[in-house]
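Entry 12.
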Amino acid sequence: MHRLRISLVIPAWNEAEFLPLLLDSVEVAWQRFVLGPDMVEVIVVDNGSTDGTRALAQERGCAVTAVAQRCIAAARNGGAGVAHGEILAFADADFRLHPETFNTIHGLMSTGRYVGGGTGLTMERWSPGIRATWLAVVPLLHALGLEGGVWFCRRDDFETVGGYDIALQAGEDLRLLRALRRHGRRSRPRRRLAAQRTARELGLAEAVAIHSARKFDQHGDWHFLSLLPRLLFWAIVSRPRADAGVEQYFYSGRGPPRDGTPAS
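Predicted 3D structure (tokens):
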């Protein structure tokens, strides 16, 4: 048996600006966990940071491991590989957790009905552009039975489905949820994915995570509505160009050129 109930894995590349806000929220959820804070561990995966992210995480009492490959899927897998918890949970470094996050995950997974899921997600600020982006993306995900926020599942199920797909530079979270859903459907008893509404139905707190608006602050509140169709177009006609666009937007921090052509 695993000694710990939950391992929270946080991939981080140069996150010294945002990580303290996340860890402040983690500390509150940590202290409110019904099984006690000693039953949760927090693992920060240093994905090649040069800004003091590693030292900051260590100072805050997190376990820190390093993954050299600059790929968020690889970083998530690296954190899972050193985790000790029965349940694995994954949060982005620019999230802020709801105070009841660990209690909600524990409550959902204790029922035995769920293979995993997400807590739900909201933005730290709203504007017409951000709301339009939200309405273009999130309802479709919900229609597919997928949820954002803090993703979680049992360690055994994570290992059975092979973890995150390191061939993907983005969208690895949705791929994992789909793999877990297929696995849950084949399980006996059958298990499904939990979502924000699931917690509400069970009388648990809706532990919705808050996502920073840093990409919108950087590129403008309407930018994603033009970026997404371009990336989808290149994914159809030229996978290398689509990969270059994803690399530039999600990994370089500079964003795509205004004409939509990925940088060389």
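Annotation: The two ends are 49 Å apart (CA to CA). The longest strand covers residues 4-12.
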